[in-house]
Write a structure and sequence with these properties.
Number of helices: 12
Helix content: 25-40%
Number of strands: 13
CATH architecture of the largest domain: 3-Layer(aba) Sandwich
Radius of gyration: 21 Å
Distance between the termini: 18 Å
Strand order of the largest sheet: 1-9-8-5-4-2-3
Length: about 375
């Protein structure tokens, strides 16, 4: 039997001719395909304030940059303020905080979900806590209502509500209480990197909670240039007007957008396959000795980019599954052990223990009914 992979790139045949058409159109940077893709994404998510980007890392960096400005309702972020963030995540989450010259306050893991511990967030709130950044690990949504309660508690203590930034890199299509992520009043960032549910080859998306943040983000993703107001002093159609707030080159291009446009129509079927596989594991691994499954509440729908569980004798398990042709992995190393963030060292006892048994098994759209039955049998034998 060939190896069952943990990840696989989804590219539908539908993309081939449209991508060739875009490549030969003479318009390959941000243009009509990007606008069309954003409209389709807006319909899929249920939020009109959507901007595509060249990566999710760009989106997280932009999200924090947007929050640095003060307004009537928001005190803004100073360089010495803190972002509460999980250590268990891709380093992209951490790098966006460092890129904005902010301090990191690590949040421990909830061992029942692999997401952040809300209790630990509460214990670490301070006058410097301006942002709470969460990751929907594996596609399983964080308790967003619980986070709103924490915002209110912070307001009562310190006079402001920290913004919540949702790192949804694992969670395209995931739902919390009947709404897709991206519709709960927070800044949300999604990944369209190669092995994600929806891929554009590489890319990302930021979803904003209001028009004001959307308008500013639209400028900052392309240097701060208002591309709709070119024609400097009505003298030259090519030249940009005054740039008030300098930004980045984080926009998506029409090639990536074309790929996304023609993969997107297949996402509902793909997500359903992932969810069917995830439910099969919950139904068939719940009583296996040496295995502990994580929370699966019916008030949310995981995207099942990962199926995470806790196992005894983790290294033995990984080696055993490798011999049986099943690729399993922890997926992401904890970020707090890296030399570049040593100054933010924090005790995280839950993560210390949880990482000893954390492992993910194949759950994606490519895992057939025969594959998942084989995987379950391998785990039972182990």
């Amino acid at each position: 039997m060939s190896q069952i992979p943990l990840f696989k790139v989804f590219m539908h045949d539908d993309i081939v001719q449209p991508t060739i058409d875009t490549l030969t159109s003479g318009f390959v940077t941000q243009g009509p395909r990007v606008e069309e893709f954003e409209q389709k994404l807006s319909e899929f998510i249920g939020n009109e304030n959507i901007l595509t980007l060249n990566s999710a890392t760009a989106g997280l960096t932009l999200a924090l940059r947007l929050l640095k400005n003060q307004d009537e309702e928001w005190c803004g972020i100073e360089d010495d303020d803190e972002v509460l963030t999980p250590a268990l995540t891709c380093f992209a989450t951490t790098s966006s905080i460092l890129a904005n010259n902010l301090n990191i306050k690590w949040v421990d893991v909830d061992p029942n979900t692999s997401n952040v511990s809300l209790d630990d967030i509460r214990s670490k709130l301070s006058p410097k806590t301006k942002v709470i950044m969460v990751v929907h690990w594996g596609g399983y949504p964080v308790d967003l209502d619980g986070l709103k309660d924490i915002q209110e508690e912070c307001y009562e203590k310190f006079g402001f509500k920290p913004w919540i930034v949702e790192d949804c890199a694992h969670a395209f299509g995931a739902e919390y209480k009947g709404q897709k992520l991206g519709c709960h009043g927070n800044l949300c960032v999604f990944s369209f990197q190669a092995i994600k549910h929806l891929t554009t080859g590489d890319g990302g998306m930021i979803v904003l909670p209001n028009k004001s943040l959307y308008d500013r983000c639209k400028l900052l993703r392309w240097y701060g240039i208002d591309r709709d107001k070119r024609n400097y002093n009505k003298k030259d159609l090519r030249l940009e007007n005054d740039i008030v707030d300098s930004g980045f080159k984080f926009h998506m291009n029409d090639i990536n957008a074309t790929i996304g446009l023609h993969n997107l129509p297949h996402m509902n079927d793909l997500l359903q396959k992932c969810r069917d596989n995830g439910q099969y594991y919950h139904d068939n691994l719940s009583n296996v000795e040496g295995v502990r499954l994580l929370e699966n509440n019916n008030d949310r729908k995981s995207a099942y980019w990962l199926f995470t569980m806790f196992v005894d004798r983790k290294e033995d398990f990984i080696n055993c599954m490798k011999e049986k042709g099943v690729f399993v992995s922890q997926v992401h190393q904890r970020n707090d052990i890296n030399s570049c963030v040593k100054q933010f060292e924090e005790e995280l006892p839950n993560l210390d223990e949880f990482q000893k048994g954390l492992v993910c098994i194949p759950v994606g759209w490519w895992v057939s009914e025969e594959d998942r039955e084989y995987i379950v049998n391998c785990i039972r034998e182990w």
